[in-house]
Amino acid sequence: MTDTMIIGMISVVGGLIAIISPILRLNTNIAKLTTIVEQLEKLVSEKTDELSKRITTHGLEIDQLRLDVSAHDIRIKNLEDKNK
Asked: How confident is the model at residue 15 (pLDDT cuts 50, 70, 90)?
């Protein structure tokens, strides 16, 4: 082997390392990001389900309160009519 071939091979190896190392770091960062996004999706899904249940419960409570208010309005009106 001549000196030129050795220098050429070292240059090729150095170039490959310069190209491959950022690609490997990028791949690692993409894997981390994917894991974080999956965890975030799970958390959002859990919280959304929890909030949906709470909203449904509160809606039922509001409906019951409206019925109670209507019943109280009728009772008050009946009491006012008796007092006249």
From this structure: confident
